[in-house]
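Progress against Task 2.4 (sequence-to-structure conversion) is shown through the following example record, which the project officer requested during the mid-term review.
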Amino acid sequence: MAGKRLYRDLFWGLAAACVFLAGFIVLSQSISSGWLKSLDDSVGEAVRSWRSDGFTQIAMVFNTLGKSTTEIILFLVVGAILYFKFKRRWETLMLFLAVLGTWGLNTMLKGMFERERPAGFMLVEEGGFSFPSGTRWSPACSTAWLDICCGSICDADGAGLG
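C-alpha cells generated for the chain above:
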C-alpha cells in the first residue's frame, strides 16, 4: 500500500513540476522584455538601498546555504541517515537524483539564457550568469524532495519517524 502512495505522490509531484516548468518557460521568454527589466531594476535598487553590514552578513549566510558545497555536505549527511538509519534506499536514490538533476538543469538553463549579472553595487559578489539562480532554486527543489522523503518515512497512523 505504501508503494502505491509513493507512486501516486511521485505522479502528482511530476505533474506539478511540469506546470511550474511551463510557468518558468513563459517567464523566461519575457526575460528581455522592457517591463521585466524595469521591474528587475526597481527591485534591485530597493534591495541595494537596504545595504548595511548586518544585511550583508545575512545575505552571505543565505548565499552560503545555497552553494553546491553546502548542498553536497547536506545530501551526504541526510542521505546517510535515510540509507543507513531508515533503510530507505529508494528515497536516498531519488534525493540524489533530485540534487543532481537540479544542478544539471540549472547549468543547462544558465547556458541557454546567458543572462549577465547586473552591473553595479552588489550585496554578494558572484561570478557566472545570473538566471536562473542556482543558490535559490536548487536547495528549494532538494528541500521539497526531502519533505516527500520524510513524509514517506512517517507512519500512516501519525506515529512519526523511527
